[in-house]
From TrEMBL:
<keyword id="KW-0648">Protein biosynthesis</keyword>
<dbReference type="InterPro" id="IPR015190">
    <property type="entry name" value="Elong_fac_SelB-wing-hlx_typ-2"/>
</dbReference>
<dbReference type="InterPro" id="IPR027417">
    <property type="entry name" value="P-loop_NTPase"/>
</dbReference>
<dbReference type="GO" id="GO:0001514">
    <property type="term" value="P:selenocysteine incorporation"/>
</dbReference>
<dbReference type="Pfam" id="PF09106">
    <property type="entry name" value="WHD_2nd_SelB"/>
</dbReference>
<dbReference type="InterPro" id="IPR036390">
    <property type="entry name" value="WH_DNA-bd_sf"/>
</dbReference>
<protein>
    <recommendedName>
        <fullName>Selenocysteine-specific elongation factor</fullName>
    </recommendedName>
</protein>
<dbReference type="InterPro" id="IPR050055">
    <property type="entry name" value="EF-Tu_GTPase"/>
</dbReference>
<dbReference type="InterPro" id="IPR004161">
    <property type="entry name" value="EFTu-like_2"/>
</dbReference>
<dbReference type="InterPro" id="IPR009000">
    <property type="entry name" value="Transl_B-barrel_sf"/>
</dbReference>
<keyword id="KW-0251">Elongation factor</keyword>
<keyword id="KW-0547">Nucleotide-binding</keyword>
<dbReference type="InterPro" id="IPR057335">
    <property type="entry name" value="Beta-barrel_SelB"/>
</dbReference>
<dbReference type="InterPro" id="IPR036388">
    <property type="entry name" value="WH-like_DNA-bd_sf"/>
</dbReference>
<comment type="function">
    <text>Translation factor necessary for the incorporation of selenocysteine into proteins. It probably replaces EF-Tu for the insertion of selenocysteine directed by the UGA codon. SelB binds GTP and GDP.</text>
</comment>
<dbReference type="Pfam" id="PF09107">
    <property type="entry name" value="WHD_3rd_SelB"/>
</dbReference>
<dbReference type="GO" id="GO:0003746">
    <property type="term" value="F:translation elongation factor activity"/>
</dbReference>
Length: 627
């Protein structure tokens, strides 16, 4: 079994002893700032090692409890695996206790316990009342029914039992997603003299090694990992679940901030419009109104925005989850399934929280149709969501699917092994989409043959143009290739045509075309503009180029100029006439004397013989290529 890494969060009301308990468990004082020492309150999250052996490593984050530092508290608990809610035995459940409990419930942290701290300050009766107070006050939160550990941070009573319980619980949990793409939301940024920029946080997914090149989002800057520390010890690699400090190069301190995210792949996107499943707080004091300002907390990010409903304009109490959207003032990095908290900026109040359905939401219309769409996004399987996503784009690169649908590379690769998915050049599409497209291309080709029976086939460029509004060019190329392989159509030069198709005269054109050729032959060498013959035959003049190509392909006519054409027998007659009356080399004057043509016909005739490779230029005259 590989070693696993977990992080435990310490939460609770101010002065209930979180920092003292952390020190009792780890022998580390997490209040490191001068102001924290002076005021004896935690302002920034602190971290310390709790347990480490060859099976498991556990860190503790001590998060601030004061209401003014709720932002730091949320940033601190983002990414934790287990939470300890600390409640002082001599004070019991306080307002901040309830808010922390609700926030932790919204964040869907699955494992935790309650520590009844400072038991050295109360007697048995008060302790019993405190337990009853906790059980009643935290009913309906994630802490309903969890173990309660009476502890004294001063004497150490109960600390060993608490620590053992945490370790035993986490030993039973599966490892974090250490094989996913690296994601590291930053909750602290500082500088070390001689080392440069250092960032701290909990690794959400993946792993990182010294020398790795990463991308800082949302500012899209490239950075390099110079050094990695876990609990003040330098390591070569850090893994998902570990509290980690990264010394990075390539970016100055002032361009990094809490809430930025380091990633190892450009498959992550940034977005300011996210579709969410929202659960409201149970004790809202104020009405939540359509498009009202909110503060949104996702991971370690805090960003202003507004809430957008699609089936209501306000809400005060609602037990059912609400499908809605958060439109943020600046882009964030998130994936489907990430948890969030929203708060009212003034007056301060936690509105609720939930999970992200789609981190790359669109602008939707108010109404039932949008709610239906969001319900599909919420409850649909990955296969359903991927197909829905592809219905509009038709085919997408894997990296865009990973970022837009917020899934792992492993999940995607497993899904596209199924026969209904088609993968080509790192793009993914669905067999249904491919079949629809092949049928559409075939219809276009058949329709073209029907309307243009004289032509060899539909030009590839025109075929692409006819369906490019519906399908991307790379998918059209792929479909064209598949159709050729399957024998649905053939390609000759720029033309695409059905396998058994041959250019032919439409029934209604057989007599007019025969008349046209006869009239052309009858006029011998002194022909009119070809369009005149088209008009006299009764064939539509806009079909002139098709008629010319057809007659040339079957060898019925020979072009002299773009406007003048001879019937093939006429052309051959004068070639033979000239050839029998000249030597191997002749000039234009000789030709004129023999044939008697005017310059209008003589020059194009001689040039046509050159094109047909019957003659070639030689010393100011022409030479027969075969005499």
């Amino acid at each position: 079994m590989k070693k696993r890494y977990f992080t435990v969060g310490m939460a609770g009301h101010i002065d209930h002893g979180k920092t003292a308990l952390t020190k009792a468990l780890t022998n580390v004082d997490t209040d490191r700032l001068k102001e924290e020492k002076e005021r004896q309150i935690s302002i920034e999250p602190g971290f310390a090692p709790l347990y480490d052996d060859d099976r498991i490593q556990i860190s503790i984050i001590d998060v601030p409890g004061h209401e003014r530092f709720i932002r730091q508290m949320i940033a601190g608990v983002a990414g934790i695996d287990y939470v300890v809610l600390v409640i002082a035995a001599d004070e019991g459940v306080m307002p901040q206790t309830l808010e922390h409990a609700e926030i932790l419930s919204f964040l869907n942290i699955e494992h935790g316990c309650i520590v009844l701290n400072k038991i050295d300050k109360v007697d048995e009766e008060v302790l019993k009342m405190a337990v009853e107070d906790i059980q009643a006050g935290l009913n309906g939160t994630m802490f309903e029914g969890v173990p309660i550990f009476p502890v004294s941070s001063v004497t150490g009573e109960g600390c060993d039992m608490l620590k053992s319980s945490i370790v035993e619980t986490l030993l039973l949990q599966p490892e974090r997603h250490i094989y996913d793409t690296f994601r590291f939301p930053i909750d602290q940024v500082f500088t070390v003299k001689g080392q440069g920029t250092v960032v701290r946080g909990t690794i959400y997914e993946g792993s990182v090694k010294e020398g790795d090149k990463l991308i800082s989002l949302p500012n899209q800057l490239d950075v390099k990992v110079r050094q990695i520390q876990v609990h003040h010890e330098q390591v070569d690699t850090a893994y998902a679940g570990q509290r980690t400090a990264l010394n990075i190069t390539g970016i100055p301190l002032h361009q990094m901030k809490r809430g930025d995210t380091l990633v190892s792949s450009n498959s992550y996107i940034t977005s300011d419009t996210i579709d969410v499943n929202l659960s409201l707080g149970s004790n809202l004091k104020y009405t939540v109104k359509q498009r009202m300002p909110i503060k949104c907390y996702i991971g370690t990010t805090e960003v202003m925005g507004k809430i957008v409903f699609f089936d209501r304009n306000e809400v005060t109490m609602e037990k059912e989850d609400i499908l809605c959207q958060l439109r943020l003032d600046s882009p964030i990095v998130a994936k489907r399934g990430d948890r969030f908290i929203i708060r009212r900026p003034s007056p301060f109040e936690t509105i609720g929280g939930g999970w992200i359905i789609d981190p790359n939401g669109k602008r939707y219309k108010f109404g039932r149709d949008t709610i239906t769409l969001l319900q599909k996004k919420k409850s649909g399987s990955f296969s359903d969501r991927l197909f829905s996503f592809l219905e509009e784009a038709k085919a997408l690169e894997k990296k865009l699917i990973l970022s837009n649908l917020s899934i792992s590379q492993e999940e995607l690769e497993k899904e596209i092994q199924h026969q209904e998915w088609i993968v080509y050049n790192d793009f993914v599409t669905h067999r249904k989409i491919l079949n629809e497209m092949v049928n559409e291309m075939e219809r276009n080709i058949i329709d073209f043959h029907h309307l243009n029976p004289l032509q060899t086939g539909l030009r590839k460029a025109e075929l692409f143009q006819s369906i490019q509004r519906q399908y991307p060019e790379h998918l059209i190329e792929y479909c064209l290739k598949k159709g050729l392989e399957q024998g649905k159509w053939e390609q000759e030069g720029p033309y695409v045509f059905k396998k058994d198709f041959h250019p032919h005269l439409p029934e209604k054109w057989i007599k007019p075309m025969s008349s046209l050729v006869a009239s052309l032959k009858n006029d011998n060498w002194k022909v009119d503009n070809f369009i005149t013959y088209i008009e006299k035959s009764g064939i539509e003049s806009n079909k002139a180029q098709e008629v010319i190509k057809f007659l040339m392909d079957e060898g019925s006519i020979v072009p002299l100029t773009p406007a003048l054409y001879w019937q093939k027998d006429v052309f051959q007659y004068y070639v033979n006439e000239l050839k029998t009356k000249t030597n191997a080399i002749f000039d234009m004057q000789e030709a004129k004397a023999i044939l008697g043509f005017s310059r209008k016909y003589l020059v194009p005739f001689l040039e046509a013989m050159d094109r047909e490779k019957l003659t070639c230029r030689k010393d100011g005259g022409r030479m027969w290529t075969k005499h």
